[in-house]
Write a structure and sequence with these properties.
mainly alpha, MetI-like fold, 16 helices, globular
């Protein structure tokens, strides 16, 4: 199709009015980009990030135990790279972005350089295995199992016990706490949200009423209120001698709140499955649990993946609210840094760094969701 016949040409360059608006917008955008680049390279003082990078990342975690966190990082980057190569799409920027990431990581420290090398090695291994004639579907199941096994292994390495020195949860701070809150909250939200969605679809009035009451009640309360109840009220109602640390209470609050929204996402997926699927399964003599587990839920979850990932991204960003409850996550650590006299006026630089971290992690979640959707659509074809 000729350029003059394209929608892009008609919308941006067809007629003197559109041309004037396009040139004006490009000029404004260019000034913004140049001004931002000048601020980043010539005006901003990034020492606030360089000096406090360790505190922003791990907080008060004992420095002699940092090797555990690096071990988790090595495993995570290796699995991420292999997942990128195995599940991702063959895009031209993969071969450019990965080496750049390795070089940038090596400039920070040798440990980050190893993470970059593991990431790039995993991408190469995943891409090579996809092209190999020995490829099989069992690789995807093994990779999913490794990701699931990484969670309890990481908890053991971070917290200690079973041969490792114990590290109290009060010392899990910074980005480490943010990631742990997000991973554990998402892991707990998914099964509870599915159960609530099934309960709302139940023919039994007791289960359906309890699910509806829970969902509507929780959705009518702000997340800040749920966090304050978990942090302030729960210790008051616990029996004498029972204690629950603040991190666990925050995770429980996130799970309770997010599960109500996730249940509605799953319910929308269930309702999108044609009724004929259920009737066909009944005609084959399948019991209701088998119909739900083998036919309805797999299709419903596939339909609800975009909405579920959107909810998970919102949950990840909402973890920053624990700073108001006294926990030192990434946002709380940044406030502690800005309270230092030498960094009192360095809020733009620090919050720009936080925006880059949150934006990068959310972008990774969205890209993983996109790769999963494309993979599922290719499997259906």
């Amino acid at each position: 199709m000729a350029l003059a016949d394209s929608n892009l040409y008609r919308n941006l360059w067809d007629g003197w009015g559109n041309r004037l608006l396009t040139l004006t917008a490009l000029g404004i955008l260019g000034m913004i980009v140049l001004g931002l680049w000048h601020w980043v390279t010539a005006i901003a003082q990034w020492q606030v990030v360089q000096v406090n990078l360790a505190f922003l990342t791990v907080g008060f975690y004992p420095s002699e135990q940092w090797w555990r966190l690096w071990l988790i990082g090595y495993m995570t980057f290796g699995l991420s790279g292999f997942s990128w190569g195995w599940w991702g799409q063959r895009q031209w920027w993969t071969g450019i972005l990965v080496p750049i990431m390795v070089l940038l990581a090596a400039q920070v420290s040798s440990s980050w350089g190893w993470c970059g090398l593991l990431l790039s090695g995993g991408v190469i291994a995943g891409l090579w295995l996809r092209r190999s004639p020995l490829v099989c579907r069992g690789v995807s199941r093994l990779l999913a199992a490794l990701w699931l096994a990484l969670v309890p292994l990481s908890l053991w390495l971070i917290g200690g016990g079973w041969g490792l020195a114990l590290v109290p949860r009060e010392q899990w701070n910074g980005l480490l706490l943010t990631l742990m809150l997000a991973v554990l909250s998402i892991g707990g939200t998914l099964p509870l949200g599915i159960l609530l969605a099934l309960g709302r679809q139940s023919p039994l009035p007791v289960f359906r009423g309890a699910a509806v009451l829970y969902i509507e009640l929780v959705r009518g309360v702000p997340l800040v209120g749920v966090l304050f109840v978990a942090q302030v009220m729960v210790p008051l109602i616990l029996p004498t001698g029972w204690t629950v640390d603040r991190v666990t209470r925050a995770i429980a609050a996130f799970i309770i709140f997010s599960a109500a929204y996730l249940a509605e996402n799953v319910r929308s997926g269930i309702q999108a499955v044609p009724r004929g699927q259920w009737e066909a399964a009944q005609s084959l003599g399948l019991a209701p649990p088998l119909i739900w587990g083998l036919i309805i839920l797999p299709q419903a979850l596939r339909i609800a993946v975009p909405a579920m990932v959107t909810q998970f991204i919102a949950l990840f960003k909402d973890t920053s609210l624990v700073a108001i409850a006294g926990l030192i996550d990434l946002m709380g650590a940044s406030r502690s840094v800005l309270s230092q006299p030498e960094f009192f006026n360095r809020a733009p630089e620090l919050y720009s760094f936080l925006a880059l971290v949150y934006g990068g992690l959310c972008f990774m979640l969205s890209q993983g969701s996109k790769a999963l959707e494309l993979r599922q659509s290719s499997d259906l074809r």
